[in-house]
Write a structure and sequence with these properties.
10-stranded antiparallel sheet; Thiol Ester Dehydrase, Chain A; single chain
């Protein structure tokens, strides 16, 4: 089973997603800054591409909606304004009824080759399969350097957000994701939730905001992200998010971070691990993020 569609992303799409996610990292929104970076022009948010993948999943798995419990993403090439991207999904198999789907975003290269701008794997629970327990990632640190551009092991930045139904509607309108779990309280209740739930790209967009504006800071480029969704998040509830540095690699200008969102009652709703490139940081001499390390 496969699904595929095409889309051209415009600067207005980048700007609209920036307002929705609150991630105004200049590599996405400031053409003058982006022109001085190694990208040479503004690039799409990683979570904008993830949103496009989620739209494809809603079309691959029609009906009352399926629940995503895991997503891995790598961003080997940038997506620029005007690129014609192809979003592809292919069911690789299932484990205990849970679908495993390969996800890709590609674009044509200058010499006719196909370039991959995002790739990964998702695990999705169809409507007729019971939701499993999803275990968060372990909170560990790894050997590395002690400091990089003012960044240090254990530094953390946090923020919180209350998503509204209007935010969910704006997300659906921007990316075309028609999963009824995000749009219809009754459909979500039939799946066992209290009401419609917040889409994964909006939750992970909180990491995008923190990584791209706070820690490491403006100019950060996303290389990899792994996500797990242990529980639902609902519009109207306060959702604290935090990112914590767990490894620094000065020779490659790379930073590994733990990423986590937990509801105020303590339940984990989005957990993950991020790898980012800090080559283009606006200020490499001092870290402006909230330091609790």
């Amino acid at each position: 089973m496969k699904a595929e569609y095409r889309r051209v992303l415009l600067q207005s799409d980048f700007d609209r997603f920036a307002r929705l996610s609150r991630d105004d990292n200049p590599i996405h929104c400031d053409p003058a800054f982006a022109a001085t970076s190694h990208f040479g022009a503004t690039v799409a948010h990683g979570m904008m591409l993830y949103s496009c993948i989620c739209k494809g999943m809603a079309e691959l798995i029609p009906g009352p909606g399926a629940v995503q419990i895991e997503q891995t993403l790598m961003f080997p090439k940038p997506t620029f304004v005007g690129d014609l991207i192809t979003i592809g999904l292919s069911v690789d198999g299932d484990t205990g009824g849970i679908m495993e789907i390969a996800t890709t975003v590609t674009k044509p290269g200058r010499d006719g080759e196909v370039l991959t701008t995002a790739s990964g794997m998702t695990r999705v629970v169809p409507v007729d399969v019971a939701l499993p327990e999803v275990v968060p990632f372990p909170a560990t640190t790894e050997p590395g350097d002690e400091a990089l551009y003012g960044l240090k092991l254990g530094m953390t930045a946090s923020d919180s957000r209350i998503f509204s139904v209007a935010d969910l509607d704006e997300y659906g309108d921007l990316v075309g994701d028609r999963n009824p779990l995000f749009r219809d309280d009754a459909a979500a209740q039939r799946r066992g939730f209290k009401g419609r739930i917040v889409p994964g790209p909006l939750l992970a967009g909180m990491f995008s905001c923190l990584l791209g504006t706070r820690l490491p800071g403006r100019g950060t480029g996303w290389m990899k992200q792994a996500l797990r969704f242990p529980g639902p998040a609902y519009p109207g509830e306060k959702l604290p998010a935090n990112v914590t540095i767990r490894r620094l690699r000065a020779d490659k200008e790379l930073v590994n971070l733990r990423t986590r969102i937990a509801a105020e009652d303590g339940r984990s709703v989005c957990d993950g691990e991020a790898l980012v490139l800090v080559r283009n940081l606006e200020n490499k001499l001092e870290n402006k993020s909230e330091n609790k390390g």
